[in-house]
Design goal:
alpha/beta; Aldehyde Dehydrogenase, Chain A, domain 1; Aldehyde Dehydrogenase, Chain A, domain 2; 2 domains; 7-stranded mixed β-sheet; 6-stranded mixed β-sheet; 40% helix; 22% strand; globular; binds NADPH dihydro-nicotinamide-adenine-dinucleotide phosphate; OHmuconic_semiald_DH; oxidoreductase; 2-hydroxymuconic semialdehyde dehydrogenase
């Protein structure tokens, strides 16, 4: 049985308490590894190691030297691609076809993109007049924030964790990472890659454990953590914000959503169906950017529902190793309980179940897995729980609309604002509607098309701040103005 330890100051160490928890394969319920559970002592040791490393060789390196090391980290992930793929798929159950195209390559890219960005980024300078006539020059420099606490979720474990660790390290910070207890494997594996790439001890630390009253809370409460970056649920974000208030420490939050897709009758229906299939069902619907509410213009409503139903029923459910499978299990039996409770609520609230709504029949060896059926509903009221609350499962509700303004109003009606999709061939309408949607990211005739230089983040209760490209620098560095009197 694999044993997963913390990485503190360059060494893999177990917990002093000897406490461990099980890492479970969600496809069959089998235990993959025993993971050490960090207490306050381990979290404190990791934070102190990160603090000390700021003053070591890492803190003295030039931007290009750091960039070179981060390129080696990216190359190290690529060189061990199959191990990362295996680990990510064991932890999440997601199809290998998906993880090999998205999770692992993006995990490597996150280091290269930010290493290169830092090499070319400029700061501002201003000449100014002074009363004595001699003048002054202002120029700005960027400095690392210090020790960054990184708290990441289970849905895209390597991708979302490196999306934070990449820019944090490129900017010269050190990190303490707390991955989700559901998915510790790739975070641990990255520790080996970091060491082989020459990242100094204490720069990348990992503590495993749970959130509340455990490693997550101990890390966010730690006074020597200078800033906290977090991806996860909105309610968890509130708890972390309370912890960060002590010491007035900055946060960057990517939180929950209940994203809307608007499909106009003038869309290219083939594209809208293909895109909606991905935005609703990819990764078992466990994507923060996914669509759980679809608003379809009435003339094409019946055809759209019929075609999405056919698409959902054509998904091939199976394990990561099944080359035909494009639909895996949910992350855990606990999460399945939550998703199935919404499947029941939909029925209780009077939905028409277009397809799915239950648990698929699986072979005996997979019976312990967290499987659910891809599900589509129609006919619910706008205030129904299933239409207003984030489910984070492979399901959506589809509702007809008659007017453009009505669709915009429906899409904007919730307290979330992460992402939205618009399907139309009318360019003016696309720009007009995109401008009115209350969301941090709007896709027109596409979904999950990401350029890592662009701003990523949510509005309303879906987040605080933007990461991506130069926007990441606002969070991971302190901008200092130096004024020199001549
Ligand atoms: P959670 O908020 O439950 O957990 C995220 C991480 O926070 C985990 O590592 C968790 O630990 C930790 N955590 C939980 N409570 C605390 C606490 N009090 N203090 C410190 N850390 C804590 O989210 P999930 O892991 O369930 O991820 C799914 C959620 O993430 C969805 O709501 C989804 O919308 C959101 N998400 C948002 C994205 C975005 O970019 N906006 C992207 C991807 C997901 P543990 O669970 O191990 O106990």
């Amino acid at each position: 049985m694999k044993e997963i330890k913390h990485l503190i100051n360059g060494a893999f160490v177990g917990s002093a308490s000897g406490r461990t928890f099980e890492d479970v394969n969600p496809a069959n319920g089998q235990v993959i590894a025993r993971v050490h559970e960090a207490g306050r002592a381990e979290v404190d040791a990791a934070v102190q190691a990160a603090r000390a490393a700021l003053k070591g060789p890492w803190g003295k390196m030039s931007v290009s030297e750091r960039a070179e090391i981060l390129h080696r980290v990216a190359d190290g992930i690529t060189a061990r691609f199959d191990e990362f793929l295996e680990a990510e798929c064991l932890d999440t159950g997601k199809p290998k076809s998906l993880a090999s195209h998205i999770d692992i390559p993006r995990g490597a890219a996150n280091f290269k993109v930010f290493a290169d960005l830092l090499k070319n980024v400029a700061t501002e300078a201003f000449e100014m007049a002074t009363p004595d006539g001699s003048g002054a020059i202002n120029y700005a420099v960027r400095r690392p924030k210090g020790v960054i606490g990184v708290i990441s979720p289970w849905n895209l474990p390597l991708l979302l964790m490196t999306w934070k660790v990449g820019p944090a390290l490129a900017c010269g910070n050190t990190v303490v990472v707390k991955p989700s207890e559901e998915t510790p494997l790739t975070t641990a594996l990255l520790g080996e890659v970091m060491q082989a790439a020459g990242v100094p001890a204490g720069v990348y630390n990992v503590v495993h454990g749970f959130g509340p009253d455990s490693a997550g809370a101990f890390l966010t409460e730690h006074p020597d953590v200078n800033a906290i970056t977090f991806t996860g649920e909105t309610r968890t974000g509130e708890a972390i914000m309370r912890a960060a208030a002590k010491g007035v420490r900055p946060v960057s939050f990517e939180l929950g959503g209940k994203n809307a897709g608007i499909v106009f009758a003038d869309c290219d229906l083939d594209k809208a169906i293909e895109g909606s299939m991905r935005s609703v069902f990819a990764n078992g619907g466990q994507v923060c950017l996914g669509t759980e509410r679809l608003y379809v213009e009435r003339p094409i409503f019946d055809e759209f529902v019929a075609r999405l139903k056919a698409g959902a029923e054509s998904l091939v459910i199976g394990t990561p190793d099944d080359p035909q499978a494009n639909f895996g299990p949910l992350i855990s039996l606990q999460h399945r309980e939550k998703v199935l409770s919404y499947y029941q609520k939909a029925v209780d609230e009077g939905a028409t179940v277009v397809t799915g709504g239950g648990v698929p029949e699986m072979p005996a060896e997979l019976a312990g897995g967290a499987w659910v059926q891809p599900t589509i509903w129609t006919g619910l009221a706008d205030g129904a729980a299933v239409v207003t609350e984030e489910i984070f499962g492979p399901c959506c509700h589809i509702r007809p609309f008659d007017r453009e303004e009505e669709a915009v109003e429906l899409a904007n009606s919730l307290p979330y604002g992460l992402a939205a999709t618009i399907w139309t061939e009318n360019t003016s309408r696309a720009h007009r509607v995109a401008g009115q949607l209350e969301a941090g990211i709007v896709w027109v005739n596409s979904w999950f098309l990401r350029d890592l230089r662009t701003a990523f983040g949510g509005s309303k209760q879906s987040g605080i701040g933007r990461e991506g490209g130069v926007h990441s620098l606002e969070f991971y560095t302190e901008l200092k103005n130096i004024c020199v009197k001549l």
